[in-house]
Amino acid sequence: MTEARIVTVAKQLPEYSRKTEEILPVVSFWLNGQEERFQRKVIKIFEGAGVDKRYGIMDIKEVFTATSFEDKNAIYSREAKKLGTSVLKKALDQAAWNSQDLDFIITVSCTGIMIPSLDAYLINELNLRQDIIRLPVTEMGCAAGVSGIIYATQFLKAQPGKKAAIIAVESPTATFQLNDFSMANMVSAAIFGDGAACVLMSSDPAAEGPRVLGEEMYHFNDATHLMGFDLTNTGLKMILDPAVPATIANHFPGIIHPFLEKHQTQIEHVDHLIFHPGGRKIVQTVESLFGKLGKNIDDTKETLRLYGNMSSVTVLYVLERFLNRQIDKGDQGLILSFGPGFSAQRVLIEW
Question: How far is the C-alpha of 221 from the C-alpha of 234, rounded, in Å?
C-alpha cells in the first residue's frame, strides 16, 4: 500500500514583533474611557494568556489604527504573498527538492480574502509546474493546517511517487477590531499572532520522515456558533464562545480513543502529542485530560509562549519541533487541532 510521509516543516515569521510587556501600554491607551474594572480584567487576560511574544505583518501602531477592511486586507494580501513565497522556498531547500517536483499545492488561510488564492501567486513566483493541482483551504480556521495534512495524505496515498506542499499563512492581527470591546475580541487580541509554515509530504518510496498511519476529521453536531468570524464592514470579527474548552472536554474521549483503536493503537502507545495551542484555557483543559494519561503537551505550551496562536499555522510549528529531534524508530505521534464547525482534526504518525 502507498504511504504518505511528512518530509519536512519550515516556518517563517513576519518582520514585526513585540513582547507582551511592550504591548500592555498600548492596550491600556486603547481601553482608555472604558470602565476601570473592565480595563483591569483585559490587562489580566493579556498577562495570563501564556504568550510572551507575538509577530505581526504590520507594526503595532498600524494594528491600532482605524482603517477600512479594504486597507487591512490589502496589507494581508501583500504580506501573505511574501511569507508564502519565502516559507515554501525554505521548505524546498530543506528537502533538497526542486520547485518543479511538486504535484499538489494546498494553501491555508482564514484571516484575509484573496481571489486568486495564494497558491496561484506561488505558482508564478517559484515557477511551479503548469499541471500542478491546487487546493486553497480558506474557512477551516485553526484546524486547517491539520486539514491540509489530511487532504495531502489522501492525495498521496492514492498516487505513489508524488510530492505535496501545504503552505499555511495567517495574520490574525489583520482581523483586529479597534471598536469592538467584546470579550471575544479581547481574548483573541491577547492570544493571537501572525506567522507562516510549510509542510512537504511525499508518497515516494524513498522519502524519509514519519509516515501517516491514519487521518480523520471529527465534526461536533450543532456547534457552528462556537467559533468563527462575522464578516462586517470593518473586517473579520472574531466569534469565540467561552464554552469551547468545556465542549472539547466533553467530546474528548470520543475524539481520541475510537480513532486510535481504528489504527490498532491506544493513547498509552502514543509517545508524542503534537497539539494546537488554541489558548490558555484550551491548553489547560487538554493538559488535564492528557495529564491523567501520563502525557505532556510541553511543546504546545512553549509554542504558544514564543509566538502566540497563529491560527492554522501554530500546530505546524509544534510539529516542526518534533521533526527537529532525534526520535526513536517506531514512536507514534498524534497531531490534533480544533477549529470552526466545530471540528477536531487528527493525524496519527509513526517515525
Answer: 30
C-alpha cell at 190: 491577547
Question: β-pairing, 227-232 with 195-202?
Answer: unpaired
How many CB atoms are located within 10 Å of the residue 21 CB?
Answer: 11
Q: Tell whether the torsion through CA atoms of 262, 342, 338 and 217 is positive or negative.
A: positive
DSSP SS3 for 76: helix
Cβ burial, residue 78 (10 Å; 0-12/13-18/19+): exposed
Distance CA 7, CA 208 (A): 6
CB 277 within 8 A of CB 304: yes
pLDDT by residue (tens digit) across 108-159?
999 999 999 999 999 999 999 999 999 999 998 889 999 999 999 999 999 9
Q: Domain boundary residue among 202, 233, 251?
A: 202
* CATH number of the domain encompassing residue 132: 3.40.47.10
Q: Are 106 and 137 in contact (CB under 8 A)?
A: yes
Residue 144 near residue 338 (C-beta atoms within 8 A): no
- 172 and 217 fall within a common domain: no
Residue-level pLDDT at 96: 97
In the three-class reduction of DSSP (H, G, I as helix; E, B as strand; rest coil), residue 125 is classed as helix
Length of the chain equals: 351
Determine whether 174 is exposed, middle or buried from the number of CB atoms within 10 Å of its CB (0-12, 13-18, 19+): buried
CB 330 within 8 A of CB 350: yes
